């Protein structure tokens, strides 16, 4: 019964919920993993009736197994979200189980895995595939290109077709050129090909559900919901993705002047804040990893 249940769940997500192909694959895989675990855990076949017997201890054991396979906090939280959705669809009340939490401490950048998981969670929860493509593209611009949310949403159709760089107008109308990673460029192009309205050169590139310019508040609300699902801290905001872009570049050898240009800071002192963040993060890693710390 396990394969038909997961298949029917995937059909429901695609047909009734109109979820993206990525979401359907990820949630189906989560359902199959849960069913396989329960079959071994209980020593027998699992059907809808048996799913109603799932208890919090069963979910904790399942998550413990997945964590033992190397899942990080954000990925484990997404797995829990998938199995909760599956149990709800099957008519089985999901037991109250707290998801993994990211430990709070010194301010730190969002890790690459957490940034991608956050963007993917926001995109997966979109009501329409094109909206999911839009949200994915916007958040990749913040994390992969270091844009402010206002800069990303201020882009117009004039940036299309995209090249290897992007001309961005920032604060005080300061213009800068930002290199585009292939993944970021592909995300924006995928959105541009999916949006149901034509994009004029002088019109907003990113559109809201009714066709107007996308509001920053919409993005912030989506990120707030996704970080709760993933167990990420309150500091995980759209602007935190830009901070992470800066901190990760600094940690990989970019100098402050280069970073100043990429971020569009008017003064070097604005960029120097990232040295403190990076030092705090490194100190935290040192204290937890060094045998004599």
The arrangement of helices and strands along the chain is HHHHHHHHEEHHHHH
Task: Name the helicity range.
Answer: 55-70%
**Biggest beta sheet summary:** 2 strands, antiparallel
CATH superfamily placement of the largest domain: Intergrase catalytic core
Structural class: mainly alpha
Number of H- or I-type helical stretches: 13
Task: Tell me the radius of gyration.
Answer: 21 Å
Average predicted confidence as pLDDT: 78
What is the CATH class of the largest domain? Mainly Alpha
Quote the beta fraction: under 5%
Do you know the CATH architecture of the largest domain? Orthogonal Bundle
The strand count comes to 2
- What number of domains? 2
Shape type: elongated
- Identify the strand order in the major beta sheet: 1-2
Distance between the termini: 52 Å
Low-confidence stretches: 102-107
CATH topology name of the largest domain: hpI Integrase, Chain A
